[in-house]
């Protein structure tokens, strides 16, 4: 009974905060400011911290599989919420298709970014024993004709036009999480059924959102790369804007899955008004 009470209190507070108009209107702005000025944190953090090593387990376990973790928890929450309300597999699949669209967009952009880096990049060999050193760095000699894979396999350095895929992924996942789980607050206000499994999944999604924000801060503070991280954040925000603020507003159809919560929040008498308010809060 005690743990159930704690769970209800925590999830109600989190749902009320994430579903508020202030959070929904300004979260993407806060994220943009963080990406723009986050590298300045490198002036205060210690490079001897455990988070200053890319081999730290939190980077290996979560960052490298960020999209997988997001799909597991958000997909489970979206499916359980939609199916518990409508008992319709087709409706649940339609809401889950937003994750598939975002995943396809992420994979497509990653392929394009790799192509851009391969096309604009060049291979360089480090001359470690050379007496000519510039700013304490070894001299680099251009190696023509080598591809990126051949260059890296030979232990040489590849330099091209890069966009941070990690920052792109984290920004996209944060904005996607904020959009998908924000419907839980209006759903609870309508008196919707919220058992323990649904609340636990929602709490896991909230924790995952804060974990992605923490990892984003760590990347910007301990591994600042300007302007590649800024471009990655901008690409993530633009992807969210194109999907959730543009395409999904067209309404559910054969070519559009619709907004989160659409068709779910109007199960009560005042559900349509709540859904309209939620949609209005998404406007910026």
TrEMBL record:
A GO CC term attached to the entry: endoplasmic reticulum membrane
Leader sequence residues: none
Where does the protein end up?
A: Endoplasmic reticulum membrane
The UniProt keyword set, sorted, is: Endoplasmic reticulum, Membrane, Transmembrane, Transmembrane helix
Q: What is its main location?
A: endoplasmic reticulum
Q: Pfam families attached here?
A: FIT (PF10261)
The topology of this chain with respect to the membrane is: Multi-pass membrane protein
Q: Name one GO biological process term.
A: lipid droplet formation
Give the stretches traversing the membrane.
26-46, 66-85, 167-188, 200-223
UniProt-listed InterPro entries? FIT, FIT1, FITM1/2
Molecular function terms, GO-annotated = coenzyme A diphosphatase activity
Q: Which HAMAP family match?
A: FITM1, FITM2
The family assignment reads: Belongs to the FIT family. FIT1 subfamily.
| Function of the protein | May play a role in the formation of lipid droplets (LDs), which are storage organelles at the center of lipid and energy homeostasis. May directly bind to diacylglycerol (DAGs) and triacylglycerol.
Q: What is the designated name of this protein?
A: Fat storage-inducing transmembrane protein 1 homolog
Q: What is the organism field in this record?
A: Dissostichus mawsoni
